[in-house]
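User: Before I run my own analysis I want an independent prediction to cross-check against. Here's the chain; please return only the structure tokens and, at the end, one sentence I can use as a sanity check.
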Amino acid sequence: MWLLTQSGFDETIALAQDGIKFIHNFSSAISHSTPHLYISALPFTPLNTLLAKMMMLKFSYLVQIAHGGLEDWPAVQLSLQGHNDIVSSVAFSPDGKRIVSGSWDKTVRVWDAERGVQIGSPLKGHTGTGKSPQLHSPLMGRGLSQAQRTRLRGSGML
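Assistant: Structure tokens:
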């Protein structure tokens, strides 16, 4: 995360993000057969991505999509796994970068919306069965300890 605060690394960050999306989208085909990297993955890499612009120059002999190829990466649907009971409330942070979920397992979890990974450990012991939380609302923290509210504030959720 420190790289995000440094100047002059925009292209490096964009390439790394493309690499992650490439793996998310094509890992299944590539894991079955390495040649699928060249047959099924690189030709279908969206044209407007930095990865495609760099790699297609190096592999110009590959099959090309004549019409209808993707211009940008498709939206990725992620499954957030971690709760042990019914999830009763879910909300996004105002900037869309975090998701908070409350469950009947008496935990509140904060997630990275882009990567689908949990941020920190679960906040345990909330007492509400929870309707959908309103972020930046005093009601959102109801039933949480002061330390748990402080952690949520620090992650941008409260």
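Sanity check: Residues 2-58 form one domain.
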